[in-house]
Amino acid sequence: MPQMIAHDVMIDKVLSVTPDMTLRQIAKILVENGISGVPVVDGENHPIGMVTEKDLIAPTGDGGQKAGRERWLTQLAEGEPLSPEFLANLEHPERTAHEVMSAPVMTIPETADLSHIARLLVDYRIKRLPVVRDGLMVGIVSRADLVRQMAQEHAKPTPTPPHEGILAEAIVTLEDHFSQPPPSPAAVDTEKSDKPTVTAGAFSALVEEFDQQKATQHATDKQAGVEQRKALIQDLTDHHIDDETWQSILRKAQTAATAGQKELLLLRFPCDLCSDGGRAINAPLPDWPETLRGEAAELYHLWERDLQPTGFRLSAQVLDFPGGIPGDIGLTLVWGG
Q: Where's the CBS domain (predicted)?
């Protein structure tokens, strides 16, 4: 029996909200549809965040008097749905999805297998994962979907497939496609005639032929670069960082510190992996983490979960500007002053 994948269990008619939608509007959607969370998408349907009931009732700095109530509400948001009465009387109903959403959002491709999805849900302590195709959301898979599938397959258990493998390397670079120069034509064709045609017009024709060959080679190289860039972005979107890879990255950071270094480049990736093409990072804007996708988003989540509480910083910067526009972006782990 073939391995089940995300496409087989995902819900393809997904409710979503926009970044400017108010909490009152979102609460109404959650209550009316009996759901506990909803993805936030931009104008092109790229998932940029997630809003859950827990986000709607998170503490807002009103003091310690509400601490007990907030803890109780948080526990409730992790279990049974909140009541329509409470959600209809939110204390900050005009706040927007952009202000409270969790970002960047974790995503999976349609081909992700169910065991891998289950591992992500457990490792990152989340309840749902948007399914993307070419960066656009086409569905969503939740814990409930996996439990439902397990119940259906209970009568015909299948062996658990081995893990598909781990990320080969956390730091990647694009190859240089412009290293092979175009072949140089001979100045005079001696095979066609014993005597070359020594005229300015003939030589100009040879120069024109050379320029045409060079332009053709450049176009071919440029297209090859575009195709490889697309393949790299797809690879960075499809593959995930498992615990073994994360521990390997941490060991590299420790080795770098032992050698006297104060930072480590964790990942180099094309700016196209960002939902805005790297503009927020280039600006820089404070909400740049919300634009991260794929492995870049996973690295941010891992840093936020494991390293930020212990004093590590994570910086993002544009590393090059081919043609005057952002090219590759680097995520760097920083521990030095």
A: 10-66, 101-156
